[in-house]
Amino acid sequence: MKQHVIGSQSFGRIGLGCMGMSWAYGPGGELDSNLAVLDRALELGVNHWDTADLYGQGENEKLLSHRVSQVRDQIFLATKFANVFDRTLTSHQDQVAASSPWIVDGTPEYIRKCIDLSLARLGVDHVDLYYQHRVDPLVPIEETVGALAELVQAGKIKHIGLSEPSADTIRRAHKVHPIAAVQSELSLWTQDYVHDVVPLTGELGITFVAYSPLGRGFLTGKYKSLEDFAADDWRRNNPRYAEEAFAANMAIVDQVQAVANRHQATTGQIALAWVLAQGQHVVTIPGTKRIPYLEENAAADSLVLSPTDLAELGSVQPPVGERYPETAMQYVNG
Fold it and tell me: What is the pLDDT of residue 244?
């Protein structure tokens, strides 16, 4: 696995998004099967593990604790705060409409509570990367980053990250304390940040961490209709998976398949290679709860796309539908 460095820490440029093991994409895996995936990930050099307090309302962090405590020095561990799942922890509920299903809290008080709870669930004394999961529109980013800088000084976190920030927010935050990583959605069907945030992070020496690089599984070509998803799978409510969009978006997979055929690779591997080709500072965290898919993703590390491949993939048409429902879209590019 080719390596990437943040600070003094080196890790594989293809990491592991752990959310689906506990939340969102149908039933989570059994404990033993999830731990087997984590064990195999380490064997493959997939040692950048990404979680959040939101995933399963803390359950994903607890899951990782079964392995992280045993191999702490081998893991680059990232978690997140700000998306409120326990309203007893936040004072923001009085400032957000009662009907709102989503509260984002970036206050120093909330941050201090969340880091201690995450460390306890993970069973560690620090995390390597701590993200603000979404930018709080009610709190200046300078105030949030100032509080995170205090956690760096306290040794509870090594590096500060932001998820789904705008270019302007990144510039303002970076003046308060160096931002180590920006995590935002980037894939062949989500290219929103290719022309602003991706080059800006490269200019500032910030790692860009691409989440959902496989289009939440769509770019693998494994899904043909909504019936392929469990009844409680979050993707059933995603606009790009809606019945009227599904068939239209399959044309994107067909275009990627043409490139995959030339490389004797899967469409998912081509999608990952495209993401990594967006810059030396770009890494990615495809998620899975199955070893065969983990191995397939890791193998994309050796793929090199030609200028012809990149030009062909660059002609992919934008997908039909927003990448989130309306309530979630208000917090992206914040």
Answer: 84
| CB burial string 32-64: b at 16+ within 10 A, e below | eebbbbbebbbebbbbbbbbbbbbbebbbbebb
pLDDT tens digits, one per residue of 236-275 = 989 998 888 998 999 999 999 999 999 999 999 999 999 9
How far apart, in whole angstroms, are the C-alpha atoms of residue 184 and residue 332? 9
Asked whether 28 and 22 are in contact (CB, 8 A), the reply is yes
CA 44, CA 84: separation in Å to the nearest integer? 34
Q: How far apart are CA 162 and CA 331, in angstroms?
A: 12
The average pLDDT across 26-45 equals 93
Assess contact for 170 and 135: CB atoms under 8 A. Answer: no
What are the boundaries of each domain within the chain?
3-216+279-302
Rounded-to-integer distance, Cα 263 and Cα 147, Å: 47
**Could you confirm whether 223 is annotated as catalytic?**
no
Per-residue exposure over 71-86, b if at least 16 CB sit within 10 Å of its own CB, e if not: eeeebbbbbbbbbbee
Give CATH for domain 3-216+279-302: 3.20.20.100
% of the chain residues with pLDDT over 90: 85
Tell me the pTM.
Answer: 0.97
**How far is residue 31's CA from residue 37's CA, in Å, rounded to a whole number?**
10
Residue tagged active-site, from 55, 130, 193, 331: 55
